[in-house]
């Protein structure tokens, strides 16, 4: 099929024109499973990890395996035939290469020669172990080849040089029939990627199959011979399953092939989704014209190539190849007529049966899921299993990462104090009173974040407006609200601290004077002072209380009302910050790096990055420190492997982020910055005082607390 007059080919050696196999010979066998029912495991893209086939079949309790391409047909000599681009692709996705080694090999500074000098056949495929007998297949495996295979290895199978027990390569002249569970399942296979402009190029293939430099693709003669094979073994009592690497859901020519072969079921791969899909054309097309449109588009792409090479192909093919080419062209011309259009006999055409009756599955990679066909009493049941997407990262999304719709006319978030059904109305707000609107950029209210702190009050409306908050842009509005919130929280904490300290001094003095053994009504119960107080200000003491103080709670002798709080122990510091994503990496850089440079630094692991955040401190503003959030733990661990590698000519320090690091990098031990070093230790110390764990004096100084005014 090749000639010097044809367009340039990728072939590196002479190819023979005639078909080396005897003409009109079909390689067919029937496998009878002597069981009342059986399960068939269907997987895709095992990518050379062939030892996993037995494990997957055992987990699925399968009697056979159907594989849809990228099996890993490589041997040691294949490395010399694979080009640099394909070798890099195989290195990127090989499950046999450890993550750390893969990241090192794929680093931008490594030239292709570094990959070629390091990668051996053992890192790409276990096929040599299968060929030598070190790995044995426990159940029959039926496979087509994929887009990344060595065509020379496949030619050795077709020539009879390679023969592996329980391994059946389905091609255009090889078919198998499985008699199982009351169903005779006919397997027809078509391997290789569908590339229209290569359908008349054999590459390094000898006859009808094609490939070269580590890749394989489908040819027109391959399609023609598959049609010829299917016609020769046709049996109306059989159920036909078409196994392809290219998806009929995406490729019109594959849909046409399924129509011509009268396929009842199709299984394909090649889209690399995290979920497998199950569909028929009726379920995904708006009408029958949608199916016809997809087929017409595929035909037009083929016709463009065919018209450019037609004269050259006609000059070099033999009589047998002419028969196969005509059958391939009949597939391309197979376009279902519109319903109700009059036929040759004047009768209107009905719907093509395949429109609703041909069922298709497109599989995800074997690492992410599979399809199990359970056949019993003539019924073919299907089970789809997929690892799917990880949506845990959405639990850590903050309002600042969600952009507001510009010029939106929709209503904003419900104002605070209005019961939305998710939480009770905060104290002090009536059900009929109007509330100040909350700006769209404001963080989520406490009843959505889980915080027990008091609802914050938005900035007051401007004079003369009466209703609306001043219209500022997003940054100015957020800054103004943050400043007002900090000032309000500062005043509240100061007031509460003084009230608590005064109440405790009065209660301690009254207890010493009266010598009472039980607490007075409305005061905090006594705690045994014989045990020393805890040395750390981080643990909350366990204190038994009668009830939480309320706005109508008891008053002290000087008329000071006990502060209203929902906590019975030490008060938790007010914070608007949501819980940190547990899969976050803290990253310190010697030289500044922007967000894109940070993403590129992580190599393959960057696919799992959900957010990169530079803190507001000095190092963060200078882009020397950031937090990198990942969607799951596996992605974060892949990122941690980059610790110590160079970013902008200097090593970067990576470690899993914790709240401790976020405090230490800001130069404070918690709380709000700029308060003279008072941090979380101050809150804990005041908690001990409120629990009665001090002897009436000032709270013990801990964790950087400044001396109180009463000391």
From TrEMBL:
Region (Disordered): 1-28, 399-585, 650-711
Compositionally skewed regions (Polar residues) per UniProt: 399-419, 542-554, 562-575
Domain of life: Eukaryota
InterPro entries in alphabetical order: DUF2433, Glutaminase_GtaA, Metallo-depent_PP-like, Nucleotide-bd_a/b_plait_sf, RBD_domain_sf, RRM_dom
Sequence ranges of Basic and acidic residues compositional bias: 498-507, 656-668
PANTHER family xref list: DUF2433 DOMAIN-CONTAINING PROTEIN, GLUTAMINASE A-RELATED
Entry protein name: RRM domain-containing protein
């Amino acid at each position: 099929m090749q000639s010097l007059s044809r367009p340039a080919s990728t072939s590196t050696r002479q190819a023979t024109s005639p078909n080396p196999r005897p003409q009109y010979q079909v390689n067919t066998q029937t496998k009878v499973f002597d069981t009342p029912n059986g399960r068939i495991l269907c997987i895709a893209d095992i990518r050379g990890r062939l030892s996993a086939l037995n494990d997957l079949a055992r987990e699925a309790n399968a009697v056979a395996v159907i594989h849809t391409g990228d099996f890993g047909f490589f041997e040691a000599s294949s490395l010399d035939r694979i080009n640099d681009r394909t070798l890099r692709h195989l290195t990127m996705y090989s499950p046999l290469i450890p993550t750390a080694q893969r990241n090192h090999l794929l680093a931008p500074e490594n030239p292709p020669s570094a990959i070629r000098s390091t990668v051996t056949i053992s890192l790409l495929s276990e096929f040599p172990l299968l060929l030598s007998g070190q790995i044995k297949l426990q159940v029959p495996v039926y496979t087509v080849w994929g887009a990344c295979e060595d065509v020379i290895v496949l030619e050795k199978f077709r020539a009879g040089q390679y023969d592996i027990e329980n391994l059946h390569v389905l091609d255009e002249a090889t078919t198998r029939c499985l008699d199982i569970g009351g169903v005779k399942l006919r397997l027809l296979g078509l391997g290789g990627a569908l590339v229209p402009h290569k359908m008349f190029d054999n590459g390094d293939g000898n006859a009808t199959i094609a490939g070269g430099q580590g890749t394989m693709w489908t040819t027109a003669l391959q399609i023609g011979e598959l049609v010829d094979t299917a016609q020769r073994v046709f049996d109306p009592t059989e159920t036909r399953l078409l196994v392809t690497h290219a998806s009929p859901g995406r490729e019109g020519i594959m849909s046409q092939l399924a129509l011509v072969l009268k396929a009842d079921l199709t299984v394909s791969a090649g889209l690399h989704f995290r979920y497998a899909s199950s569909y028929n054309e009726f379920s995904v097309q708006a009408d029958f014209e949608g199916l016809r449109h997809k087929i017409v588009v595929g035909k037009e792409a083929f016709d463009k190539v065919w018209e450019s090479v037609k004269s050259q192909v006609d000059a070099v093919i033999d009589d047998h190849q002419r028969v196969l080419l005509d059958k391939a062209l009949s597939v391309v011309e197979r376009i279902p007529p519109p319903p109700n259009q009059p036929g040759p006999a004047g009768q209107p055409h009905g719907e093509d049966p395949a429109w609703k009756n041909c069922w298709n599955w497109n599989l995800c990679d074997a690492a992410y899921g599979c399809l199990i066909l359970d056949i019993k009493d003539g019924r073919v049941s299907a089970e789809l299993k997929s690892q799917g997407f990880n949506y845990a990262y959405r639990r850590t999304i903050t309002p600042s990462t969600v952009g507001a719709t510009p010029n939106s006319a929709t209503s904003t978030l419900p104002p605070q104090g209005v019961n939305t059904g998710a939480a009770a109305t905060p104290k002090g707000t009536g059900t009929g009173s109007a509330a100040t609107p909350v700006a769209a950029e404001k963080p989520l209210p406490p009843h959505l974040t889980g915080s027990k702190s008091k609802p914050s009050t938005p900035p007051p409306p401007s004079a003369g407006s009466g209703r609306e908050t001043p219209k500022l842009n997003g940054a100015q509005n957020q800054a103004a609200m943050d400043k007002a919130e900090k000032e309000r929280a500062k005043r509240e904490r100061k007031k509460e601290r003084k009230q608590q300290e005064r109440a405790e001094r009065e209660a301690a003095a009254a207890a010493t004077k009266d010598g009472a053994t039980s607490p007075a009504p409305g005061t905090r119960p006594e705690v045994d002072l014989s045990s020393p107080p805890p040395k750390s200000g981080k643990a909350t003491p366990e204190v038994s209380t009668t009830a939480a103080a309320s706005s109508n709670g008891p008053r002290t002798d000087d008329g000071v009302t006990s502060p209203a709080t929902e906590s019975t122990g030490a008060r938790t510091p007010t914070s608007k910050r949501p819980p940190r994503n547990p899969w976050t990496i803290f990253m310190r850089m010697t030289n500044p790096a922007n967000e894109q440079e940070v993403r590129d630094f992580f190599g393959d692991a960057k696919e799992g990055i959900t957010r990169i955040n530079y803190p507001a401190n000095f190092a963060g503003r200078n882009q020397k420190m950031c937090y990198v959030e990942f969607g799951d733990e596996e992605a974060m661990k892949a990122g941690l492997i980059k610790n110590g590698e160079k970013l902008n000519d200097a090593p970067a320090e990576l470690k899993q982020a914790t709240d401790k690091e976020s405090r230490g990098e800001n130069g404070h031990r918690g709380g709000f910055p700029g308060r003279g070093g008072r941090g979380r230790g101050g809150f804990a110390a005041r908690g001990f005082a409120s629990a009665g764990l001090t002897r009436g004096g000032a709270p013990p100084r801990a964790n950087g607390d400044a001396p109180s005014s009463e000391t």
